[in-house]
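Structure record:
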Amino acid sequence: MLRAALVSATVALMPLSVSGQTADDDDLDPLMEAMGIPEVLEIMREEGIAYGGELAADLFGGAGPGNTPKSWAATVGDIYSIPRLEASVRATLAEELAGSDTDAMLAFFESDLGQRIIGLEVSARRAMLEEDVEDASRDLVLEMIEKQDPRLDLLETFTEINDLIENNVVGAMNANFAFYTGLADGGAFEDEFTEDQMLSDVWSQEDAIRDDTVDWVYAYLALAYRPLSDADLQAYIDFSETEPGAVLNQALFTAFDDMFVSVSLALGRAAAGHMAGEEL
């Protein structure tokens, strides 16, 4: 269950409104469990707290991850609380999967292969919290390219079918725009920072975001799926090409994008408030 943003920036302080038909909890709870979403959210919380330390270094006069102001650390911990993250993802998934064939989704991810895939994805995501593991995974991809490893063709197919690059790039840019919006809402800019200026700045980051996204996605996939046979990976690709697989993929991207945007907005507002407090 890769389908989550590659920026360590985001999760819901603000409740999401849900209108119209939604998927039943009886359908959603087993699917979220089978896909390892609770474990993924725990990892995202760790990523978010680390990102909060990086923000402190950038915004609050040199404080770093090991020297973060206590009030800021508490705020970040609250923003990334698991109940809030889960509520955000659940609300969007319930709406996006309404009327969908969740039985087919559950059948795949509760199968032996599906559970093995989820275990590998979660383990790889957690392992890549360590910088040396991420660096080694990126080096692995370079070696695969140099050797023209045929596994790369399968990884490329998987990436294209699930639109991993474009969805993650869009998600990262949406999160960055939300963070700027939060800063502006909180009065962090002495001069007016218009929406057009924010958009221009975000779009100026697109190439760098895309390059890092490509590198990260392939490093992650190479690490996560290395133990799978080509036949197993092809079976995952085949499921992704089905209607339930495609619907689920897009629902997950929408759910995590909503989560990242709301968290980025909250982080921006909180950062602005903290900066104002530091200046008093």
About this structure: The chain has 13 helices and no strands. The longest helix spans residues 243-279. Residues 136 and 219 are 8 Å apart (CA to CA).
